[in-house]
Write a structure and sequence with these properties.
TTHA1013/TTHA0281-like; 2 helices; 4 strands; about 100 residues; four-stranded mixed β-sheet; about 25% strand; alpha+beta
Length: about 100
C-alpha cells in the first residue's frame, strides 16, 4: 500500500509540473502580410504590444523578430526584465498573388 501511495504522489507531482510548464510557455502569435506596393513583409501581433516591423524576406523578418519580440515583451512587462529562457512565437504568413493564365 505504501508503494501505491508513493506512486500516486509521484504521478501527481509530474502532472503539477506539466501544468506549470505549459502555463509558462505561451506561444505569441505574429502575423506577416505581404505588402505588394512596398514589396516587403509586414509583421504585427495582438500578443506582442507595439510590434510593427517589416523586411524584404520572411527569413529577414524572422531574424528581426528574434530581437524585437523579447525586447517588446520586457518593455511592456509581459515578461520580467531578468527573464532567461525560451520565448515561443508562431509566425503565420499570408501572401496573395494574381496569376495570369495564357490561352
Amino acid at each position: 500500500m505504501f508503494y501505491t501511495q508513493e506512486t500516486n504522489r509521484s504521478r501527481l507531482k509530474r502532472e503539477i509540473l506539466k501544468c506549470e510548464v505549459s502555463m509558462v510557455q505561451a506561444v505569441y502569435q505574429v502575423d506577416a502580410l505581404w505588402d505588394n506596393d512596398a514589396a516587403v513583409w509586414v509583421a504585427t501581433s495582438d500578443d506582442v504590444p507595439g510590434l510593427a516591423t517589416e523586411a524584404d524576406t520572411l527569413e529577414a523578418l524572422s531574424q528581426k523578430l528574434r530581437n524585437m519580440v523579447p525586447e517588446l515583451l520586457r518593455l511592456n512587462h509581459v515578461i520580467t526584465a531578468d527573464y532567461v529562457g525560451a520565448i515561443a512565437i508562431q509566425l503565420t504568413s499570408q501572401r496573395q498573388e494574381l496569376i495570369e493564365v495564357a490561352s
